[in-house]
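Here is one chain, start to finish.
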Amino acid sequence: MAIKIYSASTDTTITNAYKPDLITRGTGSNMGFADVLEVFSISGQASASSDELSRSLLKFPVHEISASRADLSIPKSGSVDFYLRLYNTPHTLTLPKNFTLEARPLTRAFEEGTGMDMDDYRDETYELEGANWMYASSGTAWTVPGGDFLDDDHDNRAFYQTFEEGIEDLEIDITELVEEWMGEMGGTDGGHGGTARTNYGLLLKLSGGHEAYFSSSVITGNDGDIGGAPNNGSSLHNLTGSDDSFYTKKFFARSSQYFFKTPRIEARWDSSVRDDSANFYVSSALAPELDNVNTIYLYNYVRGQLQNIPAIGDSTIYMALHTGSSPSNMDPVACEIKDHTPGGGTSAAFHTFVTGGWVDTGIYSASVVVTSSLSSNNYYFPVWATADGGTELFTGSAITAQKFDTRQGNPNPVYASAMPNLKREYTRKEEARLRLTARDKDWCPTIYTVAKKEQQDIKIIENAYYRIFREVDGYEAIPYGTGSSTTPQAQDSTESYTRLSFDVSGNYFDFDMSLLEPGYSYGLQYVYYVNGSWKEQPETFKFRVEE
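Its structure:
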């Protein structure tokens, strides 16, 4: 599974905005049970120099992310990205344009509270539970009103997004921060660059240049120099601020009724397995370097479950290729192999094992470039071992090698796609392996091809991606994870998080049904990258998810 979601565990909005009387500020207001979060800045409403701000606080269950890494549900540091996702709330109030929001780590714990009033700010916390503009929690004041967070003077740890139209959702890469949070917890491979940071949550605010201008230092006491209105030390010194107002940007909060729009951290990675056992080529000077590379996989199933090989664990494994017409008639002299490294590789005779590695629980791989003449009756047999010349572990099935033929090809292939194992209904507890088979659209089976156990006419689509949408309204629950580039990302890119795997039986992917809201039917579509262009396939495959 290449997507995993961690929903916010705590969130609230804090503000120093004026109540409707334009005299009293709502600095004691708590909005922890409100179904939206709000960020805004108002300049000059109570007087020519008045400032009013609203900020949001969020915390996420980093211990769950750390546990996912410990049980190998998500990859190690460097192989997964974490995105902060918040979803725009439509409203009838004014909406700012061309502004920047920033997310910063908090340096003090906060309480969510139970307030709901976001209009008149009547749900005040005082000494009760819940954060507000002046207090992080019951009896614990912020060092600076409006929240204690890492600023540029202490630690340049800020994450930004610019909103041109104002209606955009928020999507910010906060990978470095999440890794630091996990490092503080001592999680496996946690900590970015060895740095640890306590998870107090995040503060979401307008950038300094978009929050209201205020020329004085923080006022303490009941000075009330803003149009006679009590300030109570709530205004923030901001000489680089704006005289314009940015009112108001709203996001759905964790208490929202909308399943897909609550605040979340989204883990994304490329989990695709690209097994060339059915797509194996002898190298050619006419082909680019990467097209000459073949990656072979070993799947260690024990009693139906993938398990690590005891002698290997999650460490190095070795592979050699033998040639011949059968396992009992293998010739070790016929080919030369290379360990593949981008930009080169060292040539070695067949008896030198290629260095492979651990991919996931019970899965290992090795990449080779084969440079040899190929007779029509030759097969390759992968032999896996504990070391170069060490204990042999397993001899794989025969691999039929192909030659590149530059005289043949179809610049505009058209495929017919099918999902032979898709069920009509799933529960949210299921993680399903979904198979995709693609054939030439004009494929005409014969009695022979229908009777064959394994259909050799199945096409392997090396770059296939999926999306899932809710049928009733077309809402895109999982978009095509193809990245921002016009071409497929490199293998293992975290941007290619919906790329399908492939093996000898065709394409497939694993999907966690808990990502989808129960009680709805969904559509599943594919896009292929073929011969330099993206081609969305016409088929839509439907299924339903229940609790």
